[in-house]
Amino acid sequence: MSIQVKDLPFDAEEISKFAEKRNEPKWFSDIRLKGLAHAEELPLPAPEKTRIADWNFTHFNYQIRSSAGSQLSELPQPVQKVMPRDAGNVLIHVNGVPVYSHVAEHLKEQGVIYTDLATAIREYGELVANYYFKTTPIDRHRLTALNAAVVNGGTFLYVPKNVTISEPFQTVYYQDAPSSGLVAHTLVVAEENSSVTFVESYLSDQAVGEGAANIVDEVVAKANAQVRFGAVDEFTEQMVTYVSRQAEIARDGRIQWALGQMNDGNTLSENATNLEGDGAAADIKAVSVGSGSQKQNFDNYVRHVGKATQSQLLVRAAQMDASNSIFNARTKIERGASGADGEQTQRVLMLSDQARGDANPILLIDEYDVIAGHAASVGRVDPDQLYYLMSRGIKQAVAEKLIVEGFLAPIVDLLPIDTVRDQLTTLIERKVG
Amino acid sequence: MTIPELKINDLHVSVEGKSIVKGFDLDMKGGEIHALMGPNGTGKSTVASALMGHPKYEVTSGEALLDGENLLDMAVDERARAGMFLAMQYPSEVSGVTNADFLRTAINGRRGEGNEIPLMKFIKTLDKKMQMLDMDQSFAERYVNEGFSGGEKKRNEILQLMMLEPKFAILDEIDSGLDIDALKWVAKGVNAMRSETFGCLIITHYQRLLNYIRPDKVHIMMNGRIVKTGGPELALQLEKEGYDGMKAELGIKDDETVEA
After folding, report:
1. Is residue B12 part of a domain?
2. Predicted model pTM
3. CB proximity A27 to B under 8 Å
């Protein structure tokens, strides 16, 4: 089924000029034009049970100059708040433009690359070209194509073979330009036997008004590599978000997703992990709180291809006010993935009579010798828990808040940067309070 | 300090339309420890849950006064703040909330805004009480009752009792499923609470616990009300003769028994 949408507000000429201004190599601007062509033809994705036809994915200003200074002290307050308390490996973007970065010298010496996408395609073009739109096809649908066409921000993290890094890499995106669109594309590449932790925070100010975000993250973990990927999304209520986070995991590789999906606006989220190699493993944890009248659709997908691959998926969400969220968890075990083990759990707490939440567990299994399980529930706060807390003198509203925050805590605890953990905790408190 | 007083008059309680407690009377003062004994299904736990205000238990008539105030008019949390405490038979698990956060929220809920317990004082008190109950320090940071063994849950109930310092506590079968060591720790905690400003009602099937916590009064409950009251010797007599002996003595027919 194709969905009719408004025409795109930009054309090939405009995009070519944009690429030229940014000094982009030809291979990259070619991808932009290819993306544009697809975006003009392809339909929007068709998420189940969420009507997105009237969401504004396409009309926004993508050519913005940053107004922020490049001194740490000049960074917007919300950005400063989520930065590490001591100098870490940080990359800050304001309105898509990189304004500050810091990477430890000893990491650069080991060959680690951590920079914004625009710099990466100029300085490490060949490397970037190997991974850009490889786990996620440009022509999956109109929104991925759009990302290719007008990408205006992003991050490139490359970790060479055998390099293991315990300190996290952090990226912060902050939008405050009116009607702006953040079109970001991030690549995280972990070569064989490497280990890395990456955390991204997305923030916006009310000044954006009706803006949009189109985010495509691609993660590649090669043989025996380990990637920990954390994210906190915090866009304001008039921003429409499309976010795709996809990973390709090779033999004995491992990924851990810890996603705090806390946008206040309409959100379409696709998270996918491809366990390609034997022994590859994924641990996916995501939390969200729906509030106001926002509509959200979350699709978490794991595909088992290799033998003895393992996945654990845990989604927890609370639905407040008149919010409406759909949660799909899909575990696919391909033929030949013998010994695979895929487990998924989705739990949605309904905290308002007007809210709606739907959890759809889906298992598709084409192999006999596997273990797979799912659990999904949508319900209210457990009255026995409430009674127990209240019997100790805790007021009902406080007790409910404790239960909900506790319910969402397992994901908060996984975020490796304490300021980002604080960001998520504060967000949960605000949205639930 | 005034001595607290709990008066229960002619209490009747139904669960899902079924009458279970039928005319329960009890007078207790601070400084007293009472034991409430009786066979399964006579309504002992129902009395406890009804006094605490569990939504499933409907008080159809009677009154319960704590220092003259009608408990039955209060919400569950208000009863707790008024000074009631129930150590539950099956305490809930609350994932993601640490024991320490839970206790601090509960204590501050009682103390009220602007009068919160200083953090250091809280930590010191908690450490001390946990030591007294032979609980590992890690329990403070573990999620409330999650993954606790039966004995650990019971000890955690007593820890809450000691931290919250209520006027009256009801211990609902705190001894069931406890080994003798755990039983001693629980008893130690309760004995440490003994004072003029604290009264305690111990609900139990067995005389065993009363070896460690000596009650001032023992009540026998059958068919939804107290049928006999005496001193500690009553528990010993019961242990010897069993409930059947007691029934024969009191001329009670072995009729209906009800769900606890």
Report:
1. yes
2. 0.85
3. no
